[in-house]
Design a protein that fits this description.
Layout: H1 2-17, H2 24-34, H3 41-50, H4 52-62, H5 64-67, H6 80-111, H7 114-134, H8 150-161, H9 170-180, H10 185-211, H11 217-245, H12 251-271
Helix pairs in contact: 1-2, 1-11, 3-10, 4-10, 4-11, 6-8, 6-10, 7-12, 8-9, 9-10
Length: about 270
């Protein structure tokens, strides 16, 4: 029962931090030190990734009309705008497939530690502040996904590759990259959400295959508890984020990343060492 409660808490953390550009990995890394599940390292590694499926379902629920490419209308059963959007997403996924699959284990081995995550949290926090100041008086060239060209989609996908380094934040890398390429904040956020569907589904499937499909009933319950709490929390925070960026920029998240990076460094560098 205690592990189920822990799974719910970690799922809530995932649901909040997956969509905000603050690094879900960094927060879960910190949380695992205080509410670590009583499970094997292999299960914990798989659990931290697979609960993202709950977050994916939140995107599918909230944006189903835009994501579903078929219609029953008399003028045709294919929604061209949805198909075009999916083709752009698939183009953007290419860099993650080419680089992510061969180097996933290597990056986890050498960068999944508090020093690396701390450094990346702070560096990207500073970048968010700098980029927002540079873009303060610039007018976005791309204000919806329909006008997002394939070249820009591919470049956004290249920025997403940076998120393979723990602490970067997948949404943070794609949103920051898209803004630099002249995409509006709301469009950058939406495209980041849509891009997460195949990327996070693929990452989750890969972890499940590596772990194997021999789950115990307790492990299944723990996994479902984390996924459901991640789903419910994601529904709320995706809505909150989209409402937030209609009026404000991402500067506050830059300062937050710096702050949480410092906290992570103090906790792991001094508190837990003692």
């Amino acid at each position: 029962m205690i592990d189920i409660i822990k799974a719910v808490i970690i799922g809530i953390i995932e649901g909040i931090t997956e969509w905000l550009p603050v690094s879900s990995t960094g927060h879960i890394f910190l949380a695992n030190e205080f509410i670590k599940l009583n499970a094997s390292e292999q299960f914990l590694e798989m659990f931290d990734v697979v609960i993202q499926l709950g977050a994916i379902f939140a995107v599918v629920l909230l944006y189903f009309k835009k994501l579903w490419p078929f219609t029953t209308k008399a003028n045709g059963f294919i929604k061209k705008d949805s198909f075009n959007m999916w083709f752009k997403v698939l183009v953007a996924v290419i860099p993650a497939i080419v680089i992510g699959l061969p180097f996933d284990d290597l990056l986890q081995k050498y960068f999944y530690n508090y020093l690396s995550i701390t450094a990346v949290l702070i560096i990207y926090g500073i970048l968010f502040i700098v980029v927002e100041r540079i873009n303060r008086n610039r007018t976005p060239k791309i204000n919806d996904i329909d006008t997002l060209d394939y070249k820009t989609a591919l470049l956004i996908g290249a920025f997403q590759v940076l998120a393979l380094i723990p602490g970067t934040s997948r949404s943070g890398a794609t949103i920051l990259g898209a803004i630099l390429l002249g995409v509006s904040r709301s469009t950058a956020a939406e495209f980041s959400f849509f891009l997460s569907v195949p990327v996070m589904f693929g990452a989750s499937l890969l972890k499940i295959v590596k772990f194997g499909f021999d789950f115990t009933p307790t492990q299944i319950v723990i996994l479902l508890a984390g996924m459901i709490s991640a789903f419910l929390t994601s529904v709320l925070f995706i809505k909150l984020l989209m409402n937030y960026i209609k009026k404000r920029d991402f500067t506050v998240f830059g300062y937050y990343r710096i702050a949480i990076g410092i906290v992570l460094f103090i906790v792991f560098g001094f508190v837990l060492k003692n």
